[in-house]
Write a structure and sequence with these properties.
Radius of gyration: 24 Å
Strand content: under 5%
Number of strands: 8
Helix content: 55-70%
Strand order of the largest sheet: 1-2
Mean pLDDT: 82
Number of helices: 27
């Protein structure tokens, strides 16, 4: 699919999860669960009928998403395709939770699962059959794309859609067929692998990370190299699992999850990111980053409006307003990194989590008071941002998004789920801040006004930053790195500066979130939370401070969703809204310009 569209489809795992849930439901109850409702088909239906129906749904899903979402974005910004994919993932996950529930499902074996003796040990037969099916599918795909006119047209579409028309093929038909094929493969793969890995809305969706790692090894062009890398990666993770059982000194979690990130970094270091860059050069534009105007007046009006809201609202509504203010701070960090410097990060909440859990250790463990503790925690997050920024010097655009997505998963598994750092199942306690000896209740107006003051001060400082030399250097690097270097801009230092500043802002948001919640857990900073914040930042307008403020209103459990009382439909509305805005207003709500 990437060969035709140039889109890195992070929703592939969610597509596989949704199709697999439909298959399991068909087999268990004879009900066909559609996005628009449930159709009762009678008693449990045969495997073949359930399989064909599920595959047909996958094909329809691929066709509909291409026609309604990704076809209008063809030739647009690379970020728009990525964000639309995030919106689709959120929509599918919401549908899974609404229709099937949030808990995992046991999946009966699809392939024969008896033991087979191989290389001196017993291996489940379904693993060997699954590997054989993958190799067979890759062989068929290689033959189709290598020897048929359709395959030639698909390869031509990656470089020149006009050339496809000259061959007598419609570029839309070729692209639609590839999107359908990709969705069908994802659905079939989910059905076959679910008995091995289990079926869960989050875990199954995250299978896209090792899949991206294998695809990068194949440079997004070679079916054989991709399959070889995927099989090798799977065997390595299984070997690690066996070694963990035999050697107690090996950490129980984190190593297996870190393996795809290692593969991605090595592949990018060897030049695999070049294909990603070529696939998006035609649409790498970002929305225009307008210079902030009337900063002082806007700050005064914002302070007055925020103070009035803090005093007028009570209970859950006031908490939602505080959540929106903290979310706006996270969106500002995304504006700095993505909107102004052009670096796509999917790990902002990982930086926030590093600061949040560090604050717990500094304030509760060491006893460092406010405001020194949150500033130190944000500085630690800035250090983490620099650590991520170093490998980012060799990655651009969507390549960087892949790296940071894998990195967010690793941080979640290695750091946030580590009982030593994050407190285990009980979480980490964060004591309420005290200003001049006055303890601020996280649910009170005093804490809300503190968050408002931090947000307004940050927005004013960033407005001056954008209008000054550092901001102009960021925009110059975003526009053209070679031209910026030609006029004396240190491109590497500027990119690292953007990462450090962005991570510091996300860290401040994480510290404030820790104070608000009082008890932090890994679920507050997972990889999907980072994707949700990127989504709302893009919705608001990813290249401007005003867009970050609008994005803050749209964050999960923020003011907009609380006042609208959408309840469990928040995620669904966010995903659908994100896709609609991405198609109709690529610059976001505050972008002010149509594509």
């Amino acid at each position: 699919m990437h060969r035709v569209s140039g889109v890195v489809h992070v929703a592939h795992g969610a597509v596989a999860a949704y199709v697999t849930y439909v298959f399991v439901e068909l087999r268990a109850a004879g009900d066909l669960v559609l996005p628009v409702g449930r159709v009762h088909l009678g008693n449990q239906i045969p495997f073949a009928v359930a399989f064909v129906a599920s595959v047909a749904m996958a094909a329809g899903l691929g066709l509909v998403t291409y026609l309604l979402v990704f076809r209008p974005l063809r030739g647009g910004p690379a970020l728009a395709g990525l964000v639309a994919s995030v919106g689709l993932m959120a929509t599918l996950q919401a549908l899974i939770v609404l229709r099937f529930g949030a808990s995992g499902r046991p999946v009966a074996a699809v392939l024969p699962a008896g033991p087979v003796r191989a290389l001196g040990s017993d291996v489940p037969a379904d693993r060997l059959l699954l590997a054989a099916l993958v190799v067979a599918a890759a062989t068929v795909l290689w033959a189709v794309y290598r020897f048929t006119r359709f395959g030639l047209a698909s390869r031509a579409a990656a470089d020149d859609s006009a050339g496809v028309a000259l061959m007598g093929w419609s570029p839309d038909v070729v692209a639609a067929a590839n999107w359908v094929a990709a969705a069908v493969l994802a659905g079939v793969g989910g059905i076959l692998v679910a008995p091995v890995t289990g079926l869960d809305p989050v875990t199954t969706s995250l299978l896209v990370v090792p899949a991206l790692a294998a695809a990068l090894v194949g440079r997004l062009t070679s079916f054989g190299a991709t399959v070889g890398a995927a099989l090798g990666l799977g065997m390595a993770q299984s070997l690690i699992l066996l070694l963990q059982d035999d050697y107690q000194w090996i950490p129980r979690s984190g190593i297996r999850e870190a393996l795809p990130l290692t593969v991605i970094l090595v592949a990018l270091a060897l030049g695999a990111g070049g294909r990603l860059a070529r696939g998006t050069t035609g649409g790498s534009r970002l929305p225009r980053a307008a210079r902030p105007r009337r900063v002082g007046l806007s700050a005064v009006l914002g302070t007055v409006a925020g103070t009035a809201g803090m005093v007028a609202l009570h209970g859950q509504d006031r908490m939602a307003l505080v959540t929106s203010l903290i979310g706006a701070l996270v969106c500002l960090s995304i504006v700095v990194l993505t909107g102004w410097s052009g670096q796509i990060s999917l790990a902002q909440m990982a930086f926030a989590g590093v600061a949040g859990f560090s604050l717990s250790r500094l304030a509760s463990g060491v006893g460092i008071p406010f405001p020194i503790a949150p500033l130190l925690a944000a500085a630690i997050a800035a250090g983490a941002g620099l650590a991520v920024g170093l490998p980012a010097l060799r990655a651009r655009g969507v390549s960087l998004a892949v790296v940071t997505l894998a990195g967010a998963v690793v941080v979640e598994e290695v750091v946030f789920k580590n009982p030593t750092f994050a407190g285990g199942f009980g979480g980490s306690r964060v004591p309420a801040p005290a200003v001049l000896g006055w303890r601020l209740d996280p649910a009170g107006a005093g804490f809300g006004l503190l968050v408002l003051a931090v947000l307004v001060a940050t927005a004013v400082a960033l407005a001056r930053f954008r209008a000054g030399g550092p901001g102009r250097r960021l925009l110059a690097v975003r526009a053209n790195e070679r031209a910026a270097a030609a006029v004396g801009v240190d491109v590497a230092a500027t990119r690292l500066q953007a990462f450090a500043l962005s991570a510091f802002l996300a860290g401040m948001a994480g510290a404030l979130l820790g104070y608000q919640q009082g008890q932090l857990s890994a679920g507050s900073f997972g990889a999907f939370v980072s994707l949700a914040y990127l989504a709302v930042a893009y919705l608001g307008g990813i290249a401007g401070i005003a867009g970050a403020l609008v994005g803050g209103l749209l964050v999960p459990n923020g003011l907009a969703f609380t006042l609208l009382d959408l309840g469990r439909y928040q995620l669904l509305c966010s995903g659908l809204g994100l896709m609609v805005v991405t198609v109709l207003a690529p610059g976001g709500i505050t972008g002010g310009r149509r594509r």
